[in-house]
């Protein structure tokens, strides 16, 4: 009672309650935010600003030429003289295949492992295990699986299944197979993550909704369409956005398994950037690519946001 | 429209039997309330009829057709769930329409029925809203609407009012009764609330441990409880139940009821071991004639409700513990509902009289003792 009286005296009716606090605590707040802000500035904004500036220069490692402004030359050259266009297309193809396939697989696994199966805890762990492995390690293992010749694991397995009808091939050096091989590795490694997120989503759907749908006459399939999928809307959105971003960031697998080859068949944007900037020392060109890449990702994020917002918010 | 029959229905979960062997007939167009404390198997019975659980044994028939092997969608029943189970991403219209779409009805027919249900339940204004935007009462009505658009053979309602506040509960309870009478669909209504059971049911079946204790019109259950459980479960406060002692004295039989020895009234059944008196059977003041008995006790509590007073007395005699789930008096106090002007004060010793004809007699095993009606 007494406290209430004091508070009412200080804060006029209708005023936002946190207003006086903000004034008095602002210096402390700024002080506390400083380390985080400094980190953001130092490690994100500054390098990116530097990249934008450098992308208009001719900076090249070990070059005797003086540093000068070259305008948009790096941008035009990036699309004509480097593997950037091909890499962008590869990334697009990668995302178009991996995002739906991996999400569908993750959903299938989640549905399967949400049922009362014997040993489902074991299966859940097994399917999630690759997510915890370092990507580089996963890539090395898959290099062994894709090994060329009849003794390569996958070749040998396919040979066995087709009673010797399979022609052994060098998957990672085959222009047709190199990118799918990287995709397969990525899906295998990432599907457990989707599974876990969607599993949590499934368990949040009340059982009574399924019972109501069954009483209302919905078949299993229609229960899936009308209860499960809408119930998983938010986890699905999350999973799709995360996987899309990861699809455009693919680097480790490519670096270890194919180095972007053969003939850029499995090259990706980040891999091309690293190759240009560090392998070839063409820093300015790498910077220009990273700016282009940033704009592409920004565009995708904006489109996704708009698409998802249109369908309306569901609490 | 259909009658519902359970014949020797058994349900066990794992090795745990919930319903041992149950026989029940629900008449066509009747509203039957399944009443009992939580865990008595009433909801399980409903789920067995809905097809959400499979019976371990026995046969369930809807309209004469055995439905044991059929899934929920082939039984043509509609169910209102305790938490309504509305589809959160669908609008009210989408929710109402859903069972019709699942049955492949034409669009024009769907719209006609949805409009009809919306009008009957006063949902016209909220048809395009989602459940999250509705009040509790509106959600309840949508759940009802989703059940009636189907024009099912049987309605199942699983504690449909338990999520509503007291005022709304009274209002919607009346609406449910009204609606059921209007459309005349056979209805099974599960509740643990005796007021709902008494006011809604054409007949009430009181259940305990998977066994129907008694079934009949509400008034019959109240006036002639078949056993101690039903006697103690119905009524608020519950019936006062006394353990009896008998003695032969001066050539007459005497009975101890609530501490006092009294001459055995006429027509007491031979095998009586317990006597029950409803709180409203009492009046203040000692008995002055033969047909009445007197009870005395110290006033422990008085609840004044304006038009009546509920007085709790500590008597000498042994009272039977109130039934779990029933609204019994605690600690063996006697409850009396006094409507005359008496204003007893705490600690005072109060004499109460009751008509011996109002006593309910029960045998050793708890069933109502058969006897000559006095």
Walkthrough of the structure:
The complex is a heterodimer of chains A (315) and B (374). Helices cover 71% and strands 0% of the residues of chain A. Chain A is mostly helical and 315 residues long. Chain A folds into two domains: 53 residues, no CATH class; 238 residues, MetI-like fold (Orthogonal Bundle), CATH 1.10.3720.10. Chain B is an alpha+beta fold and 374 residues long. Chain B contains eight helices and 21 strands. The model of chain B has no long low-confidence stretch (mean pLDDT 86).
How would you briefly describe this protein structure?
Chain A folds into 2 domains: 2-54, no CATH class; 73-310, MetI-like (MetI-like fold, Orthogonal Bundle). In chain A, 71% of the residues lie in helices and 0% in strands. Chain A has helices at residues 2-10, 19-54, 73-81, 84-113, 120-132, 135-145, 153-161, 178-203, 207-215, 220-231, 233-248, 252-257, 269-279, 283-310.
Features:
heterodimer, A: 315 residues, mainly alpha, MetI-like fold, 71% helix, 0% strand, disordered N terminus, B: 374 residues, alpha+beta, Rossmann fold, OB fold (Dihydrolipoamide Acetyltransferase, E2P), 2 domains, 6-stranded mixed sheet, 5-stranded antiparallel sheet, 21 strands, elongated
- Name the helicity range of chain B: 10-25%
The biggest beta sheet of chain A reads: none
> What is the number of E strands of chain A?
0
Taken together, the total number of domains of chain B comes to: 2
Count of runs of 4 or more consecutive helical residues of chain B: 8
% residues in beta strands of chain B? 25-35%
Rg of chain B, please? 25 Å
CATH architecture of the largest domain in chain B: 3-Layer(aba) Sandwich
CATH superfamily of the largest domain in chain B: P-loop containing nucleotide triphosphate hydrolases
Largest interface: A-B, 20 and 25 residues
Distance between the ends of chain B: 43 Å
CATH architecture of the largest domain in chain A: Orthogonal Bundle
Q: Low-confidence parts of chain B, pLDDT < 50 over ≥5 residues?
A: none
Structural class of chain A: mainly alpha
Helix content of chain A: over 70%
Largest sheet of chain B: 6 strands, mixed
Strand ordering within the main sheet of chain B: 6-7-8-3-9-10
């Amino acid at each position: 009672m007494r406290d209430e009286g004091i508070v009412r005296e200080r804060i006029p009716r209708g005023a936002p309650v946190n207003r006086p606090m903000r004034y008095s605590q602002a210096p402390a707040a700024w002080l506390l935010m400083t380390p985080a802000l400094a980190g953001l500035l130092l490690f994100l904004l500054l390098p990116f600003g530097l990249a934008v500036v450098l992308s208009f220069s001719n900076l090249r490692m070990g070059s005797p030429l003086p540093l000068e402004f070259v305008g948009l030359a790096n941008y035009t050259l990036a699309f004509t003289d480097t593997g950037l266009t091909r890499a962008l297309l590869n990334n697009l193809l990668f995302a178009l295949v991996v995002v739906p396939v991996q999400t569908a697989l993750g959903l299938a696994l989640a549905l399967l492992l949400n049922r009362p199966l014997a040993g489902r805890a074991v299966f859940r762990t097994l399917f999630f295990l690759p997510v915890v492995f370092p990507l580089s390690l996963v890539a090395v293992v898959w290099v062994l699986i894709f090994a060329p010749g009849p003794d390569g694991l996958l070749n040998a397995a396919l040979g066995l299944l087709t009673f010797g009808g399979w022609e052994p091939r060098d998957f990672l050096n085959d222009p047709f197979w190199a990118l799918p091989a990287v995709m397969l590795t990525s899906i295998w490694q990432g599907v457990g993550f989707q599974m876990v997120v969607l599993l949590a989503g499934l368990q949040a759907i009340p059982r009574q909704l399924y019972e109501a749908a069954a009483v209302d006459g919905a078949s299993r399939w229609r229960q899936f369409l009308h209860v499960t999928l809408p119930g998983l809307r938010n986890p699905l959105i999350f999973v799709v956005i995360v996987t899309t971003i990861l699809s455009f960031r693919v680097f480790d697998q490519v670096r270890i398994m194919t180095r972007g080859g053969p003939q850029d068949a499995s090259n990706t944007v980040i891999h091309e950037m690293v190759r240009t900037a560090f392998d070839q020392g063409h820093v300015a060109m790498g910077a220009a690519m990273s700016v282009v890449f940033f704009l592409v990702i920004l565009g995708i994020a904006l489109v996704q946001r708009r698409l998802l917002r249109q369908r309306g918010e569901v609490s | 429209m259909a009658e519902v029959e359970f014949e020797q229905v058994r349900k066990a979960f794992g090795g745990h039997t919930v319903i041992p062997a149950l026989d029940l007939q629900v008449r066509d167009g009747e509203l039957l309330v399944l009443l009992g404390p939580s865990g008595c198997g009433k909801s399980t019975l409903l789920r067995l009829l809905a097809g959400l659980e499979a019976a371990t044994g026995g046969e369930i028939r809807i309209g004469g057709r055995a439905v044991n092997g059929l899934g929920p969608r082939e039984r043509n029943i509609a169910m209102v769930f305790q938490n309504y189970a509305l589809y959160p991403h669908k609008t009210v219209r989408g929710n109402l329409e859903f069972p019709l779409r699942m049955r492949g009805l034409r669009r024009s027919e769907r719209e006609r029925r949805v409009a009809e249900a919306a009008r009957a339940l006063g949902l016209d204004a909220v048809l395009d809203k989602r459940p999250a935007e509705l009040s509790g009462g509106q959600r309840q009505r949508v759940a009802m609407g989703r059940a009636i658009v189907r024009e099912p053979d049987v309605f199942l309602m699983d504690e449909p009012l338990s999520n509503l506040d007291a005022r709304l509960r009274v209002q919607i309870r009346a609406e449910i009764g009204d609606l059921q009478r209007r459309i005349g669909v056979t209805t099974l209504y599960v509740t643990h609330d005796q007021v709902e059971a008494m006011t809604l049911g054409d007949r009430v079946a009181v259940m305990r441990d998977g066994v129907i204790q008694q079934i009949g019109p509400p008034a019959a259950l109240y006036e002639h409880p078949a056993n101690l459980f039903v006697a103690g479960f119905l009524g608020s406060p519950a019936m006062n139940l006394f353990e009896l002692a008998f003695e032969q004295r001066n050539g007459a039989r005497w009975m101890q009821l609530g501490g006092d020895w009294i001459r055995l009234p006429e027509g007491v059944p031979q095998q009586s071991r317990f006597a029950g008196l409803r709180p409203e059977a009492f009046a203040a003041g000692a008995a002055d004639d033969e047909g009445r008995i007197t009870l005395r006790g110290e006033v422990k509590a008085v609840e004044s409700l304006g038009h009546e007073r509920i007085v709790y007395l500590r008597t000498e005699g042994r009272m039977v513990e109130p039934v779990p789930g029933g609204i019994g008096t605690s600690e063996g106090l006697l409850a009396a509902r006094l409507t005359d002007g008496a204003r007893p004060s705490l600690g005072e010793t109060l004499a109460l009289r009751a008509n011996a004809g109002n006593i309910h007699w029960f045998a050793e095993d708890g069933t109502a003792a058969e006897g000559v009606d006095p």
